[in-house]
Structure formats: C-alpha cells, structure tokens
Write a structure and sequence with these properties.
The chain is of the alpha/beta class. It has a domain at about 80-150: Ribosomal Protein L15, Chain: K, domain 2. The protein contains three helices and six strands. Strands 1-3-5 form a three-stranded parallel beta sheet.
Length: about 150
Amino acid sequence: MKLKINLGNLKPSSGSVKKRKRIGRGPGSGHGKTSTRGHKGQKARSGVQKKPWFEGGQMPIQRRLPKRGFTNIFKKEYQIVNLASFSKCKDQEIVSPSVMKNLGLIKKLNMPVKILGEGEISGAITVRANAFSKKAKEKIEALGGKAEVI
C-alpha cells in the first residue's frame, strides 16, 4: 500500500536534521559541569564579547602608534578638468558645469569645478567654473575666449 503525502505526515529525510546540543544538563549528557566552555577564564563567563581591537590587556596598537598630522576642515574639494578634455565640446561656445556633466567630464553638479591648464584648446570658448589655474586662464584668453568664475 502506498502512502499519500499530506501535511500531516511530512517529515524531513533521515540525517538532514540534527538534534540540538543540550548543554548544562548533568554529567550523563556529556555536556554538563562546564557546559563545553572549558575551565575558568574570560571566555568561560557569561556575556563575554571581546571587541575586535582588544589585545588581551596589552597596550593597543592605536595607543602605541604616534598621532601625526591633522585634517583641515576648511579645505575645498574641487572636481578637476584639464583643458585637453574640452576637445569633446567643439560645438559648444559656453561650457558650464552642466555641459561638463553631460559630456562626462565631471561627476557631480553640487561640487565645485576647477579648470587646469594641461593640454590645448582649439578655438575661443567661454568657460564657466568655480576656479581656474593661472595657466588655464591665460590659455583660454589667448585664443579670445573668456574664463568666468561662478
């Protein structure tokens, strides 16, 4: 006679489910007394949770090494664009950050843009940016273009 499978007679296949280890249930269980924790020490106590940087009471590395330098909180982070990359925008007369973003020269519109003077430009263009290097400004204006600070 064949058994029909129903929700009432479902059971996992043999060997797929292990019984949970019941620790601290007397010497007969094989896991009594110290409950598989060994003898004494920090790891035998309840609530043990060592921090990843804890080095067993030895002076930690972040305290052994000297502190050096500082972070300038007034530093301005610019997105850098070289003049050579303006070869992509030949048909544009005005190059602003939004045009640079569309051409893939910068990634974010909310960060300031600085133009550097590496490379050459072909014609007179108006470039709008937050900052210019001295060389970049000279090269743009030498060809009859404008370097406008926004």
